[in-house]
Amino acid sequence: MNEFFHMGGYAFYVWSSYAIALVVLVLNVLVPMRNRRRLLAAIARRARRTRRT
Amino acid sequence: MISRWFHQLGSPRYFYRFSGRLIPWLAVPCAVLMVAGLYQGLVVAPPDYQQGESYRIMFVHVPSAWMSLFIYMVMAGAGAIALIWHMKLAEVIAISSAHIGASFTFLALITGSIWGKPMWGTWWVWDARLTSELILLFLYLGVIALHNAIDDKRTAARATAILSIVGVVNIPIIHYSVEWWNTLHQGPTVTKFDAPSIDYRMLIPLLLMAVAFKLYYAVVVLMRARCELLERERNTLWVSELAESK
């Protein structure tokens, strides 16, 4: 197991590559999820406001 | 029947519903393939006879680089469709692709740099492959910046479509750069006409990751396109109804 994480001495290079890839891939999923939630909330707020007036 | 379905798909409301149902069917196989690819690539595949364990960076680097080119072609193709047929959906797909394409280009460059340091002894060289890939990143960023600079979405879509179509000239340059010029970057081992010169135990995880990345792109481009559609259609009845039902 230790050998696996050691990556024959290249641990820093291999794992930092995979870590950066993970961060970028996860962000690309989270950003549109957050945008959609915010957008729908804003549209709903505005719809309620226009109905009242 | 197919043309009717195609016509329906062009309607934002229908596309929003359809893509919402499609996403899980793409996301699950994507996750399965990615886990399988990572296991095969990090555990099963043997170390390289020359590069030792460091070559395992390939399993994120190469699929990212392939995606950076593939997404550019999708973006330019969608841009062309948007220019010719004024199809809103194509405009939305084009700009959504730009962000994801930029991410993959960034990943290809950064993982390549991290791979280059132990293998070549340098983080960066101005050779043809690296430089043309960097230009690709600037093209993506240019498309995004241009789109943000123009308030009217339809005008923005037309302007970015033209920019991305002009930028297509860079794609064959990137692909053939390792053959046309003497580069520090190694030549192709998979995408060439004779049999790939790579051990199949390394080829399998590479292909698994490549397919997983394609599916990943399909998922996130649909997610982004849905947001973009909501924003463009915010004054329509179906969007306000949808927003209030949440």
Give a brief outline of the structure.
Chain A is mainly α and 53 residues long.
Task: Describe this structure as you would to a colleague.
- The complex is a heterodimer of chains A (53) and B (246).
- Chain A is mainly α.
- Chain A has a domain at 18-53.
- Chain A is 89% helix and 0% strand.
- Chain A contains two helices and no strands.
- Chain B is an all-alpha fold and 246 residues long.
- Chain B has one domain: Four Helix Bundle (Hemerythrin (Met), subunit A).
- Helices cover 78% and strands 0% of the residues of chain B.
- Chain B is globular and about 60 Å long.
- The mean pLDDT of chain B is 92.
- The interface between A and B is medium-sized, with 29 and 38 residues.
Keywords:
heterodimer, A: 53 residues, 2 helices, 89% helix, B: 246 residues, Four Helix Bundle (Hemerythrin (Met), subunit A)
In angstroms, what separates the terminal alpha carbons of chain B? 33 Å
- Structural category of chain B is mainly alpha
- Rg of chain B is 20 Å
Total number of strands of chain B? 0
Radius of gyration of chain A: 22 Å
Taken as a percent bin, the fraction of beta residues of chain B is: under 5%
Return the CATH class of chain B: Mainly Alpha
The proportion of strand residues of chain A reads under 5%
